[in-house]
Structures are given as structure tokens and as C-alpha cells.
Write a structure and sequence with these properties.
Rossmann fold; 9 helices; 10-stranded mixed β-sheet; Ubiquitin-like (UB roll); alpha/beta; 3-stranded mixed β-sheet
């Protein structure tokens, strides 16, 4: 018998290679299935729950893509504008303004800041911007801006409290307890308030307050405070007498307390002495009208010695006084 040889058939090598590839595929599928089964066993979800989670994730992805397309097209802004216009047509727009808490501030300055917001639909009203503009006013420490539907804008002003007067070269300025300048003050308005002077005094208001708090009995007696050489204070009392204090927070407070003690026992304020110099750590120099040299007295001197010093001429060698720079 003769055997027919089919042309174009697979050779032995090709058949062997195909069988080897098939075996590798079956082995890979078996391994993948085994790994997937192992992972599935570890997951706390069954097949139905996994299917639901997959659908939920697909839906969330579709919504995110849809929102991105809508945002890119500007549809949310357009919808917001249409909503604001509808609210305005329904009467929900700024028509009335109520300002509260104003005592010293000129109320017209508040209305100037919000004039452009009259008629603005309530949904489009930028209350944060309005608050920032109001707190830029010198008298305003804080401001609360709120909508009161349907058409009222309510503004609550927290004003700064005038604390003292700062004397400048050409004017007097009201300042608060932190040295913030409020407005120019007339002499009549400054009357009765503590007056600060000297270069840089406006930045030393809180330090001066702490200093005067150390001697509460003297605090209401102080009329003026001059910041000298950007390092120390000269205090002028309501009697017109001047007290020169040393530089430094602690030394000046200690000197003021010592002066308060001496005044309590000797009634220095209102007496013949025109000026007191306590820049020296251990003594006080008394300047009496009609005498060319100051009289030195130990800080811890008894009352009789202070009184005697006012009437007894001082020795020349004991009358040295440091220059006031």
C-alpha cells in the first residue's frame, strides 16, 4: 500500500511546539485560578457583594467623568447665576442695611463700603469680602456680617476703645490700648486723657500700661508720658511735677514703686519739688525751684530726711546729675 503525504501539513517539530505552548497556557490558567481563589478566600466579600461593589465603582467613575465634563462647560456657574436671578426676582436681594454697635465711628463710612452691594442677590453676596473691607477702617476691631432674609443685611461693629492720645509734631491722635491710631483728635477731645510723646512712643503703649499697673495709686495721677531716647520714660503728673525713670522694664517698675512708697509717706506730689530723677539705682535727685543743683536723697531714706532735703542746700560734690540723653 502506498501512503499519501499531505502537503502543507504540520511537521513533527511544529506539533511538539504547539503541544508545549498548550501545556504552558493550561499551567498558567491553573496558577491564576488558584491565586485568584486564594485572594477571594481572604476577602470578606462574597461573589454577589463583589459584583455590587464593581457596579458601584463603575457608576461613581461615570458620575465623576460626567461632573468633570459639566464643570468644564461652565454649567454649575450658569445654574448658580440663574438661581441668584430667580432669588432676586422673588425679593431675595439686599435692599435694607442695619448697622449696630457704632459709637465713635462715622456710620457713613460703613455705608460707603457696602454701597455697591445694594441690590445684589442674597446668594451672590460675599460677606467675607464685606467684613475685610470693614475691618480696614481705623475704628473697627472686628465686624460680623450676616444675611437676614429676605432683603436685610445686618452688620455688627466691634469698635476699638480709645485709650490715650499720641502727640505728634503737627497733631494729636487718638490711640487704643495697643497703640493703633484711630483718628485725629482736637485739644478739647484729648483733655483728660493720658498723652504720650516722643519718637516711637506709639509702639510702647502696652509697655507703659504694664509700667503704670505696677503702681496703681499713681496711675490716675499721671498726665503725660514721654518716651526719651527710645529707651526710658519721663512721667508728668497732674501737679506738673516730672519723674525721670531709669531704662528697662524691671528697673523702671521698681523705681516707680519706690516713688509711690515715698509719696505715701512724704506727700511728694503737690509739694515744692518740681522734678524727681530716679535714674540712679540707690537715690532720688530732687530739683527744687530756685536752686541750681538737684538734691540727692537715698531711696530708702526716712520721711524726715526727704523733707529736710527740700530745705537744706545740697553740697556741690553730692549734686552731680547724669545728662538726660
Amino acid at each position: 500500500m502506498s501512503q499519501k503525504i499531505k502537503r502543507g501539513g504540520k511537521s513533527v517539530r511544529k506539533a511538539a511546539a504547539a503541544q508545549s505552548t498548550a501545556r504552558k497556557v493550561r499551567t498558567a490558567r491553573a496558577r491564576t485560578g488558584s491565586t485568584l481563589n486564594t485572594v477571594m478566600q481572604w476577602l470578606p466579600l462574597n461573589e454577589a457583594q463583589l459584583h455590587t461593589a464593581f457596579l458601584g465603582g463603575t457608576l461613581a467613575l461615570a458620575l465623576a467623568l460626567g461632573w468633570g465634563v459639566v464643570s468644564y462647560a461652565g454649567l454649575p456657574q450658569l445654574a448658580g447665576q440663574q438661581f441668584a436671578l430667580a432669588a432676586a426676582d422673588a425679593g431675595f436681594s439686599v435692599d435694607k442695611v442695619e448697622v449696630r454697635g457704632v459709637k465713635h465711628l462715622n456710620e457713613l463710612k460703613v455705608y460707603e463700603r457696602i454701597q455697591g452691594d445694594i441690590g445684589v442677590p442674597m446668594p451672590e453676596l460675599d460677606v467675607d469680602r464685606i467684613r475685610d473691607e470693614l475691618t480696614a477702617l481705623s475704628w473697627v476691631e472686628d465686624a460680623r456680617v450676616s444675611r437676614q432674609l429676605p432683603d436685610r443685611l445686618v452688620i455688627d461693629i466691634v469698635e476699638r476703645t480709645p485709650h490715650a492720645v499720641l502727640r505728634k509734631a503737627d497733631r494729636l491722635v487718638l490711640i487704643d490700648a495697643k497703640g493703633h491710631e484711630l483718628e485725629v483728635a482736637s485739644s478739647a477731645r484729648a483733655k483728660g486723657k493720658l498723652v504720650l510723646g516722643g519718637p516711637g512712643a506709639g509702639q510702647q503703649v502696652e509697655a507703659l500700661t504694664a509700667l503704670l499697673t505696677a503702681a496703681p495709686a499713681l496711675k490716675p495721677q499721671v498726665r503725660e508720658a514721654e518716651w526719651v531716647g527710645n529707651r526710658r520714660w519721663n512721667l508728668t503728673f497732674k501737679t506738673g511735677q516730672v519723674l525721670a525713670l531709669p531704662e528697662g522694664g524691671r528697673p523702671s517698675a521698681d523705681a516707680l514703686v519706690a516713688f509711690a512708697r515715698l509719696d505715701g509717706t512724704n506727700r511728694l506730689l503737690g509739694g515744692r519739688v518740681a522734678a524727681f530723677d530716679m535714674r540712679a539705682p540707690d537715690r532720688i535727685y530732687l530739683r527744687v525751684p530756685g536752686r541750681s543743683d538737684p538734691v540727692p536723697v537715698p531711696v530708702a531714706a526716712p520721711a524726715t530726711k526727704v523733707a529736710t532735703a527740700e530745705a537744706t542746700p545740697a553740697k556741690p560734690q553730692a549734686a552731680k546729675k547724669k545728662d538726660d540723653n
